[in-house]
Specification:
25 strands; 7-stranded mixed beta sheet; 6-stranded antiparallel beta sheet; 11% strand; single chain; 28 helices
């Protein structure tokens, strides 16, 4: 079989909408766009002789079977157009639902003798896989072949992600993969959701299209089958019908489970083998046998314990028979005591019944007494009623007379008030006559006083200055005040301008202070972040600030608090370079200081979990690249120059991370990243970090990992340049503020001087105004006094006024006489009615005395009756109590034993009647019973209970014996159903396994092993694999102590291949099983895999590997899927062009003609090396 020349098909994956416009422009400037590529080199088959290939070669390169047949008969004139027809036919022809998108030719259609050989997918195999936002893939779709699919690509490119996609897409959980623990971790970074779509072949209709939508929020997922949402259980039932078992390591072996499979114990290997073959319920029968065997052991143990318990119980009951006889004799005495107690209860009831009869008689007697008392009270009630009517009539007459008396008293009081008013009026008139005479005397005195005041004011007015001179002085002073006010106004305007300028400068100072405060607050923000997210580091930092005196040298840490990065972009570069643990580390300059810190913070009661390291000097600075060589394309700093920190801290960082070898570039480097990558392994640009590694295989091709950066969280620092600028600006503003303040103070001094002058002028003007006011007041006072003097000189007619007052006085006296006459008449009527009322009151008193006497007699008789009634209540209560007590005692006696004819005869036979006699007999009988001693008071109860237990245990022993016999029969039948098929199957595996080992010139055997000492312990059956890799060795059991890792991997793979020959499943997946194999073993295993999966009807096979050996032999049924990642891999079009040029170069022809397959065959091996070089 010749090596194949692969055709490279790339399914390109890009970020789509996640990509910004700036990134798309940057990609267009690059030679190639960044892609995640899965390439599928499709092998073209080598052909044997073909009788008709002279005219048909061009038409059979890539068509399906139908096109091949048509072209074989009718292509003599179509040589020039065959390539285009082939492409069109690949897109249009679809023999079944397995190949809906054949424009990507992954199925590997091959030509042999001019006739295309069409490979069929087995039912349930994978036709198509599509991933969206899954791990490293943004959007990719590819179609594996129906047989062997070799997935190859560099480490980290995403090969194992395809395995994860198959497992998760078919209903598996993250625990099957041994990688991430949650579904959300499989979604691509910065994406909230993604999906996996897998198309499985259905030989009976439309293919199964299974889609699983993944959501990062809540780590949820949703399943769809052919566009319809279904539950996970329904999906698992569907794929189970297709015999897909992603949880079976013999069928699905992901990378992180390879070690687990290889390290399985022989017993575990048997279990996994039974799961994989799934024949005649082999696995279920084995597990049922193990369960039945375990139950049989438990039941046997229980059966023996029951027999032992039965013997013990029988022996114990035999030892208790004497005690039981004594107990029964004692029981008879106690039963007689119970009879006596029963008769005693009835005797107590008889006493209670007699008391009840006595209480009933007393109650009836007192009821008769109460009845007679009520008859005697009736005459008293009629007399009291008549007396009450007489009293009420007399009281009504008293009330009527009292009303009249009140009316007369009111009228007398009203007239008395009128008389008082007349008296007051008379006294007022007399006082007015006296006042008129007094006013005349006072008028004469006032005339003399006013005349003197006029003379004084006139003299005072003559002494004051002239008004005209004073007014001229005031006008002069007003002009001076106006000048002062004008000067003050000008100064106030100037001061306001200065104040506004002062306020503006002050606001500028405040703004600068706030900005400086914000800069200084960054350290506090970092401390608060440390408090919230790293509590232990924060507490250690606080303790260190308070206890620096305990250390010989200064202690630094955590490192994130010691670093100050001015540029936020540099802070992001540095934070993505340093590990989180390093940023949380405390740095010491001596081991003694570190021990002191540990004893107080880590080993003491605080028990804080923090990182520490000791830096004692001796660091040697090394630079790999000279930064000056790259200044022209944007190099600005080495990474260790982008931040400020103590030299001890810097050296501690550089001891852990070589930041002194990384260079930081500005935006000028965006167009030169490819050039920089060739010279510098690690550098930073505004696009992110660039880190170049070299492959461990082949020609050590470089791979550059580009990582986008995000804003720094822990290392954002204080911009010292900005801080210095703000401090200088604040100092300048303060100077200007002081200058403005001095100007304002000078203006205020001028204002104060002018204000003082203004105050003196105002005082002088006020004096002048006061003089003018005094002259005016004197003039006004003289005028007022003159008018008052004229009024006083006006004659008043005193005689007329006195006569008018005397006339009013006479009228008042006349009215008072009339009022006094009326009061006298009212008093006579008042005293008359008072006499009648008093006589009526005396009559009422006599009637009330008689009424009280009758009521007292009534009350005495009533009290006597009430006493009798109370006695009746007491006797009634006693009657009720006796009745209740008798009923209660009767009920208790009936509970002890009802009084039947038989019981009465029994009571008469006892012969005791009084309570004393019964009590004496009870005491005597109980004493006899006490003398019959029993060591165990519960002997009879225990005897009877144990007798019942014996019967129950005998029944259980009989039942368990039948169950054990049934279980033995079932185990015997189940053993035949399981052991015979498993031996036959292991024998078949042994045959196949031996043949495969023979093919690689080694020996191998597989046998079913078991514990010879316990052949019925089915949990200890195992698969015994014995191998021999060297002639001088003998067959030895496969284990980690006797074989190397490569030999175990070879044995494991051959065992899996042997299982494949005997079991049916739609596909198998093995991830990097060849790791650790030497080239010889790897080549042998690959050839055996190719051979085992190349036959018709073989299941689909996925082999994942980071590399392939040169000159491997492939079958036409092999499909190679190449997975690449990175921004500089060539596109499909470029690959095809390169491939065409290589073929032309090797064949020496200007154009590759499809009808010249012989040329391709001749150059296949020559072009293989060129293809391998470009495939990396």
């Amino acid at each position: 079989m010749n090596s194949r020349i692969p055709k490279r098909v790339i399914v390109e994956e890009s970020d789509g909408e996640d990509e910004g416009e700036e990134q798309r422009q940057l990609k267009r400037r690059r030679e190639n766009e960044p892609t995640q590529n899965i390439t599928a080199p499709t092998p073209t088959a080598t052909d044997n002789n073909n009788n008709n290939n002279n005219n048909n070669n061009n038409n059979n390169n890539n068509n399906n079977n139908n096109n091949n047949n048509n072209n074989n008969n009718n292509n003599n004139n179509n040589n020039n157009n065959s390539n285009n027809n082939n492409k069109n036919n690949n897109n249009k022809n679809n023999n079944n639902n397995n190949n809906k998108n054949n424009n990507i030719n992954i199925n590997g259609n091959n030509n042999s003798n001019g006739i295309s050989r069409r490979m069929e997918f087995v039912n349930g195999s994978i036709v198509r896989i599509k991933l969206n936002n899954f791990v490293t893939y943004s959007d990719v779709e590819f179609r594996p072949g129906p047989r062997l699919n070799v997935i190859i690509g560099p480490n980290g490119s995403g090969k194992s992600s395809i395995v994860c996609a198959i497992a998760l897409g078919l209903g598996g959980g993250p625990n099957l993969l041994g990688r991430q623990k949650q579904l959300g971790d499989f979604i691509k970074n910065r994406c909230s959701q993604g999906y996996i779509e897998i198309e499985l072949h259905n030989e009976n209709g439309d293919n199964y299209i299974i889609r699983r939508d993944l959501k990062k929020e809540g780590n949820g997922s949703e399943f769809h089958l052919n566009g319809k949402t279904i539950s996970k259980n329904d999906l698992l039932l569907t794929i189970k019908k297709l015999n897909v078992q992603v949880d079976n390591l013999c069928q699905f072996l992901p990378q992180d489970k390879v070690v687990s499979f290889a390290s399985m114990s022989p017993t575990e290997l048997l279990i996994e083998t039974e799961k994989a073959i799934n024949i005649n319920n082999m696995y279920e029968n084995h597990q049922e046998l193990i369960r039945l065997q375990s139950n049989h052991q438990k039941e046997s143990t229980t059966f023996e314990e029951l027999k032992k318990n039965l013997d013990d119980l029988v022996k114990k009951n035999q030892s208790l028979e004497k005690d039981v006889d004594k107990f029964r004799e004692r029981q008879k005495l106690l039963e007689f005591v119970e009879k006596l107690k029963r008769k005693r209860s009835w005797a107590i009831f008889e006493n209670a019944r007699n008391a009840f009869v006595k209480a009933k008689e007393d109650k009836e007697q007192i009821e008769q007494v109460v009845h007679n008392g009520e008859l005697q009270l009736k005459p008293y009630r009629s007399v009291i009623a008549e007396q009450t009517k007489s009293v009420e009539k007399s009281r009504a007459e008293v009330q009527q007379n009292s009303t009249k008396v009140q009316q007369l008293e009111s009228e007398i009081q009203r007239n008395t008030l009128l008389d008082g008013k007349m008296v007051i009026a008379i006294e007022t008139f007399v006082a007015e006559i006296d006042g008129v005479q007094q006013r005349d005397k006072e008028r004469k005195i006032q005339i003399a006083k006013v005349t003197k005041d006029i003379q004084d004011e006139t003299l005072k007015m003559k002494r004051l200055p002239n008004d005209e001179d004073t007014k001229r002085t005031v006008e002069k002073l007003n002009r001076e005040l106006k000048d002062c006010n004008q000067q003050l106004g000008e100064l106030e305007i100037e001061k306001d301008a200065k104040n506004r300028q002062f306020s503006m400068i002050n606001q500028e100072c405040s703004s600068i202070q706030r900005e400086m405060s914000q800069l200084n607050n960054i350290q506090a923000q970092k401390l608060e972040l440390l408090r919230n997210e790293q509590r232990d580091a924060f507490l250690a930092y606080e303790w260190l600030r308070q206890n620096q005196n305990l250390f010989q040298n200064k202690v630094f840490g955590p490192i994130c608090m010691e670093i100050n990065v001015q540029n936020p972009e540099h802070a992001a570069f540095l934070e993505m370079t340093l590990s989180f643990n390093l940023m949380m580390t405390f740095v010491f300059q001596s081991m003694e200081d570190r021990e002191t810190f540990h004893s107080h913070v880590i080993d003491s009661g605080k028990r804080l979990r923090v990182n520490t390291l000791v830096r004692s000097g001796g660091f040697k600075m090394e630079r790999i690249n000279n930064i000056e060589d790259f200044r022209s394309i944007g190099a600005t700093h080495y990474l260790d120059e982008t931040f400020e920190a103590d030299q001890v801290v810097k050296e501690a960082i550089m001891d852990s991370v070589p930041i002194n070898k990384s260079i930081v570039f500005d935006k000028r480097a965006l167009n030169n990243e490819e050039t920089i990558t060739k010279h510098i392994n690690s550098f930073f640009t505004p696009n992110g970090s660039f880190y170049t590694t070299y492959s461990r295989y082949g020609e050590r091709k470089p791979t550059t990992r580009v990582t986008n950066f995000k804003a720094a969280k822990w290392l954002s620092g204080i911009n010292t340049n900005k801080k210095d600028e703000l401090q200088k600006a604040f100092h300048d503003a303060k100077l200007r503020l002081d200058q403005e303040k001095q100007s304002i103070d000078a203006i205020r001094q001028k204002q104060n001087a002018i204000t003082g002058t203004q105050r003196n002028i105002t005082e002088e003007r006020n004096k002048c105004n006061a003089t003018i006011d005094d002259r005016r007041k004197c003039y006004s006072r003289i005028q007022f006094l003159a008018r008052k003097l004229d009024e006083l000189n006006t004659e008043e007619n005193i005689e007329d006024e006195q006569n008018k007052i005397r006339e009013k006085l006479r009228e008042t006296y006349s009215k008072r006489a009339d009022i006094l006459t009326k009061i006298t008449d009212l008093l006579r009527e008042y005293f008359k009615i008072m006499g009648v009322r008093d006589h009526t009151l005396i009559t009422v008193s006599r009637f009330e005395a008689k009424l009280r006497a009758e009521e007292d007699s009534f009350a005495r008789e009533t009290a006597k009756l009430e006493a009798d009634k109370q006695r009746l209540v007491e006797l009634t209560q006693n009657y009720d109590n006796c009745l209740k007590e008798a009923k209660r005692l009767k009920s208790e006696a009936e509970k002890i034993g009802p009084i039947t004819q038989e019981i009465q005869e029994e009571f008469r036979a006892i012969g005791f009647h009084s309570l004393e006699e019964i009590d004496d007999e009870i005491s005597a009988t109980e004493t006899k019973a006490k003398f019959i001693i029993s060591n165990n008071p519960r002997v009879l109860e225990e005897y009877e209970e144990r007798k019942k237990d014996i019967q129950v245990i005998e029944q259980r022993i009989s039942s368990r014996q039948r169950e054990l016999q049934d279980n033995d029969k079932r185990m015997h039948k189940l053993k035949e159903d399981w052991l015979v098929p498993v031996k036959e199957f292991i024998e078949q595996v042994n045959t196949s396994f031996s043949q495969y080992f023979k093919a690689i010139n080694c020996l191998g055997e597989v046998h079913l092993g078991f514990d010879e000492q316990h052949p019925d312990d089915y949990s200890k059956y195992f698969v015994d694999i014995r191998v021999k890799f060297r002639n001088e060795d003998s067959l030895k059991t496969l284990n980690a102590q006797l074989q190397s890792g490569g030999e175990r991997s070879v044995s494991t793979m051959l065992y899996l291949i042997s299982l494949q020959d005997l079991t049916t499943c739609p596909f198998r997946v093995v991830d990097e099983i060849n790791q650790g194999m030497d080239p010889k073993n790897e080549r042998m295993i690959f050839e055996q895999i190719v051979k085992s999966v190349s036959s018709e009807g073989s299941p689909q096979y996925f082999l994942i590997t980071p590399k392939l050996l040169h000159n491997l032999h492939y079958s036409p049924e092999t499909t190679v899927l190449c997975v690449f990642t990175g921004p500089w891999f060539m596109s499909q079009k470029q690959w095809d062009e390169m491939f065409r040029r290589v073929i032309q170069k090797r064949s020496g022809r200007p154009q590759l003609q499809n009808n010249k397959r012989a040329t391709i065959q001749e150059e296949e091996s020559d072009s293989e090396d060129d293809i391998d070089e470009n495939s990396d």
